Known about the structure:
- This protein has 2 domains: 19-251, Phosphatidylinositol (PI) phosphodiesterase (TIM Barrel); 254-587, Alkaline Phosphatase, subunit A.
- By secondary structure, it is of the alpha/beta class.
- It is elongated.
- 34% of the residues lie in helices and 22% in strands.
- It has 19 helices and 24 strands.
- It holds the Pfam family GDPD_2.
- Keywords: Magnesium, Metal-binding, Phosphoprotein, Signal, Zinc.
Amino acid sequence: MQKLTRYVWLLWLATNSLWAQNPIIHSHNDYEQQVPFWNAYAAGARSIEADVILKNNTLYVAHAESEIQETRTMESLYLAPIQKGVAMGMITEQPLQLLLDIKTDAKKTLKLLVQTLEKYPSVLAQQQITYVISGNQPEPKKFKDYPEYVQFDYQALEPLTDEEWNHVGMISLNYKRFAGWNGKGRFTKEDLAKVKEVIEKAHSYHKPFRFWATPDSKSAWKAFTDLGVDYINTDMPFQCVNYVRSLPKRVYTNTVFSEVYTPTYEYDQTEEAVKNVILLIGDGNGLSEISAATLANGGELTLTQLKSIGFIKTSSSDDFTTDSAAAGTAIAIGQKTYNRAIGVDSLGNAATNICEVLQAQNYNTAVISTDEITGATPSAFYAHQKDRGMNQEIAADLYKSQLTLFAAGGRKYFQEPLPFTIVDTPEAIANTTAKHVGYFMAEGGVPSVLNGRGEAFPDVVANSLVYLGKQEQPFFAMIEGAQIDTHGHFNDVSGIVAEGIDFDKAITKAIQFADTHPGTLIIVTADHETSGFSIPQGNLENHVIEGDFTTHDHTATMVPVFAYGPHSQDFMGVYENNEIYHKILKLLNL
């Protein structure tokens, strides 16, 4: 007997764990939906509630007798549609609960209800459909007097006999008896303790649990899901189902960390001459993306140690919302241009980019990216094409480029040998004496951090800076963390956070270089924000981030600029993205 009890308990624990992760959405007062039953069922709600009133030997669906409408009966709104759905194969084998809240005399109403259900044998034959009686109901000792397919919504926490529990389908309690939280902000500590105690007590009876009279908001749905409430009460079944279903993709527990480096600040915000410029661009890395990476990393990044902070406006010349090509080109050539443009002005004419300007002044130049080298942002710093989709033409421009160094994906675009010494490892970049060096991080697209890239990006950055630091000439390097944007387009919180933290590792390498190489200016910005990302909730201690999104595309929100080193203060304020080009050249006296 002891072994059996233990087995049942373990089975219940496994089942309850599944409930907690995937609560059933309960369409409260479903008859008030524009299309009762079908609205909720099509949305994915699998528990549907109807208030039932017995009058003139008819079961009406209404909250009060004064609200009765002759055509709105239990049969017309629920049983007939379910029967038709079963006949048409639209009611699948997925469990479905019909919760019937009886408002009139329990004995008389239940008697007619059972008679009415018996008129629908094809519905009763569907074992995945259960009928749970709420509201007015007989005493628990009389539960056994009703057919097995009728179960009861027990609205107390007092123990019952085993036989009585066999007829209980769920436990429901009035939320307002235990807490006053209105679904905005968070529970008070006291209310949270009370609510947890109630849920744990209900689950100790091995029964699913529901609160009624709950707040109906995203914050409430998330809180009750996390607390293990098995049925989420809502008057908005479509919105609630979509929100709860999306939680596994939108809630991420971080496992990738950036070791925060505290800069020396020895040369920061000084008037010393600028020699080297390292421009780091986080593609799609808006303020919320940076915030998510910061919070998931324990509340700090190396980036957040920087003191000189501004904002840039990102609109392109032909659109309110930029793409990466126009934004990258604006920074590279110092002019606003149209979306999809690569290194050309708003009329489609090739424009000298910052790398070409500096090459003419005997600077070394580098382009490093976790994108393919023909991607929009890296190519804006060496190519000149009218459309970002012209991959072969963009690749051909790399053959003509005078870049000192490139490192990115996209080896597949280059069948003929490039005028670069191609090395096979990040360490080989630091060790080569070649005048022009290239490193392909992948044949095509570079893997993401969560798909095996590991430390490749910060390693490439560190070794590239060693290589550039050994040269006699000053240098300009554009370093792009490209895949924050990629995951933003897919509304993937895990990727946004992991790529943002990996980008910070690259920033750390740059800051450390600046601290040991006087005259090095660091600029960290983004080309645009992607996805309208926001952070409604999370857990700092456990490195948990819940993200939400307004779009799968770019947005026009301003993005931050962080700067470090001599004249970093010149990058404070609010200005257009193309001004970064002019600020850099001004500081280099060009």
